[in-house]
User: What shape does this take?
Amino acid sequence: QVQLVESGGGLVQPGGSLRLSCAASGSSFRINVMAWYRQAPGKQRELVALLTSSGITNYADSVKGRFTISRDNAKNTVYLQMNSLKPDDTAVYYCNMALVPIGNYWGQGTQVTVSS
Assistant: This one.
């Protein structure tokens, strides 16, 4: 059974940084697409950043220049480096992976709170 385990969330002051991690474990698979989503209270879940197996990235306009998505293939892990954090970045962050040939999986979510 595949599991995606997230870590790295927490409370940070505006302007600060956090790095989220999400590691996949379980059955044999190849990771096609890795992504981070977030959901703030009362809002829909939105795509934050995406990274394909060929290295193509895509970022939400609101995080461009501040967030960086990366991967460690040997560890089946995706990272989200978040810099210059703003209160509007406060949300539960979820990782998502498209695993071949198994399917699409979500992490459990990690809370990020940006507040002074």
